[in-house]
Amino acid sequence: MRFVRQNRIMEIIRDNDVENQNQLVDILEKEGFNVTQATVSRDIKELELVKVKGENGKLKYAVRQGYGKEISDKYSFILHNTVVSYQSAENIVVVKTLSGCGNSAAEAIDMLDINHIVGSVAGDNTIMIVVDSKENTKFVLDYLDKTLMKSE
Q: What is the pLDDT of residues 139-148, one digit of tens each?
């Protein structure tokens, strides 16, 4: 449930100007999540959200940008804890995740900036990754193998 909630938090802050934790708690509760301010505070810390100036000049939560080691470790952790399986067909890699975690895992894959990935499309529990060529699909699969083993 934590990963589903954290996935939804990332979507909420991407689509809305959330200025404080209480506002985030209210949104989550309206969507059926049973959360407290302390829970949201821990989620914000784990997701490493930052405050940035919005278009209206007020501070809002946002996903920290960058591809540093710390970011890669966080997204490796997300992949390790949400990915159920993956397999390829030609230049497509299909990744199965826990229910509600497809977007978080796809964001993790995007942020890892893996060579040869053209893009990804995520659903509730499935991600379709397009690789630039059939020959490079093995590179992407090997990278996912290493990333998932690294977190164990």
A: 999 988 888 7
Residues in CB range of 48: below 8 A, 6 or more apart? 64, 70, 71, 74
Q: What is the pLDDT of residues 38-63, one digit of tens each?
A: 999 999 988 888 999 888 889 999 87
On whether the CB atoms of residues 25 and 37 are closer than 8 A, the answer is yes
Rounded average pLDDT over 126-143: 95
Residues 6+ apart with CB under 8 A from 76: 108, 112, 147, 148, 150, 151
What value, to the nearest 5°, has the Cα angle with vertex 114 and ends 42 and 11? 35
Confidence of residue 85 (pLDDT cuts 50, 70, 90): very high
Number of Cβ within 10 Å of residue 75's Cβ equals 22
